[in-house]
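For reproducibility, we list the full input for the AOF complex.
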Amino acid sequence: MPPPPAPPQLRGVAPAPVAAAPSFLRRPVRTRLRLPAARAAAAAASVPASQSPDAHDAALLSRAADVADRSAGLTSPHPNFGCVIARPQREADGAEPLVVGEAFLYAQGTPCAELLAAQEAGEQARGATAYLNLEPGDCYGDSTAIGSLVQAGITRVVVGLRHPLKHLRGKAIQALRSEGIHVDVLGEDLQSNSFKEALESCLTVNAPLLYRAAFNVPFSVLKYAMTADGKIAATGGHASWVSGKASRGRVFELRGRSDAVIVGGNTVRLDDPRLTARHVKGHVPVRIVMSQSLSLPEEANLWNVNEAYTIVATQRGARRDFQKKLAMKGVEVVEFDMLNPRDVMSYCYDRGYLSVLWECGGTLAASAISASVIHKVYAFLAPKIIGGVHAPTPVGELGMSQMTQAIHLVDETYEQIGRDMLLSGFIQPIPDLSPVIPSVDEIPSVDPKVSPYEANIISFYKTWDTFGAFSNFSPHPIHMPDGNGDYFTWPTVEHYYQAHKFVGIDNPQARTIVQEIKLAKSPEEAARIGRTRQKEFPELVRTDWEATKIDVMYRAIKCKFSTYPSLTDMLLSTAGSVLVEASPHDLFWGGGREGEGLNYLGRLLMQLRSEILGTFPASVEAVDAA
Ligand SMILES: NC(=O)C1=CN([C@@H]2O[C@H](COP(=O)(O)OP(=O)(O)OC[C@H]3O[C@@H](n4cnc5c(N)ncnc54)[C@H](OP(=O)(O)O)[C@@H]3O)[C@@H](O)[C@H]2O)C=CC1
Ligand SMILES: Nc1c(N[C@@H]2O[C@H](COP(=O)(O)O)[C@@H](O)[C@H]2O)[nH]c(=O)[nH]c1=O
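The corresponding predicted structure, in tokenized form, follows.
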């Protein structure tokens, strides 16, 4: 499997931030430190911090959060996991532990942070302590994270946060303890004042996941650039540029850390934006336009879907002729009965998005704040004055008449960027889910036996979902032939599937593409390369692809499930249930948003399940008929 970028060799518990950490969540000037009430009370029993074991634990946990943060923006936003392995340097009290390994999860479908850190530590991991900002998500039916720590000889694990998703919460902690490893959880086993910063780092680095788990919406950030007199554009609507180059560079980073960027129709009409994360290498978010009228230009940068995918969210029935034109350009149009920010956020939640960046003007921003979907604000302030009574401002009408009604940002930070100032703050504090941690008995688990599930629907999509192991992005390498008939270990089913679009084509460019996909660092990247090359070079795609792709997929998933017994158990445990890949946009492999998709992946899994159980002849049609 191609390794993710090697973590730099860092030693010691230097307080300096990890080099090259993206800056989205940096806290340069912290004015207030907010600790969720329950935890603050727990932390009240103060312990002298300097050089105490708690201070070391806290520093290493913060470091794990910083390491975790390095993955953000490289791939599609996902929970950020970091692992730091450290051991005492000598027996003397107060000596700083030595960091012997550290790593982060690069993407879903790549080796977990614990495995990479343990590999880096090697023999030095024996008897050492592993610091994890987040409880590992054992969402694949196996337990690589736990197995790696156990095999490495780790004797103590310090966990910053229990996993916020119910089906994962407490599982890994319990598994580690049952392996005889001593586990300390922040706020439960470790409660001194020294952990305030560490806890906050752990909460912040996974804020999107926590909001998603708590409120069933993605984490939403409103970002705008305004002049010193509070305008986001000149009176006529001209806005390029309010903020300086360095600030706009920071915006590219913010985009790279988001699943989607949203603007309103008016911003499209006036700015013709691109909304890409150009200049930073990594993830490119989906662009979403909210427009009720659909009076949008025929030609616009956002309609160029070769740059990034675009979705237009509109009112049901709006300008159907124009909807068709957009669809012809590859733009997805989604109709809502009543277009509003909350429903659009529910839709984004269903699509599995963790975080959304709002880059709209004041009209839509006010609507989104009023609907309580905005969690955080990034306000870039440029040292300029433009004036204009009617020049647009960042937030339109909120219906407030007294200053006492103003929304107060919390956990605010200030940072100078070039000649601009960036003020950020939370509108809604990061939810700390620890008070509602269920006991382990309450945690639903996947029955490893064939279980008498009633006929119902089991959906899967993101790899961290309960049945996330069914996703082609799950990190289960498969050993199968490549184009030359040589056996190769494909990091995921997705890698194998995407590469096979070009396998067997007698053309050097096609062979290069196969190679490129083989080496893709994550399934997401493999998918992106496969799809874009297919669009760019249709002549390089095998002519029998449409007829053969189902077989290719079936071979791959069959290999995956037969290689990993835990996956077979999980598949059999769903007997009697209909499996649906809950992809709202892939109408061939997925089930679609309202069940309109063909759900071929779900069907193939059911076919495989039947084959293993020996109940059905192996064919998709047979499953379909059933
Ligand atoms: N400096 C900065 O950071 C930024 C500046 N700007 C500037 O702001 C100006 C545009 O601001 P503004 O007019 O407020 O633009 P918006 O981006 O807020 O767009 C408003 C439009 O959003 C659509 N919309 C859809 N649903 C809703 C809803 N529920 N509530 C409100 N609007 C909805 C409507 O589109 P429709 O009419 O199509 O139905 C509406 O006209 C431009 O001059 C632009 O340059 C914009 C973004 C950032
Ligand atoms: N004018 C303005 C911003 N405007 C936002 O950026 C969008 C343009 O993005 P792009 O086309 O990708 O460069 C624009 O439509 C609006 O949403 N942003 C800023 O950081 N600073 C600025 O001064």
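The pocket of AOF (ligand 2) is lined by residues 225, 239-243, 247-248, 251, 263, 267, 271, 273-276, 359, 380 (CB under 6 Å). Confidence is low (pLDDT under 50) at residues 1-50, 435-455, 622-626. Both points were considered when choosing residues for closer inspection.
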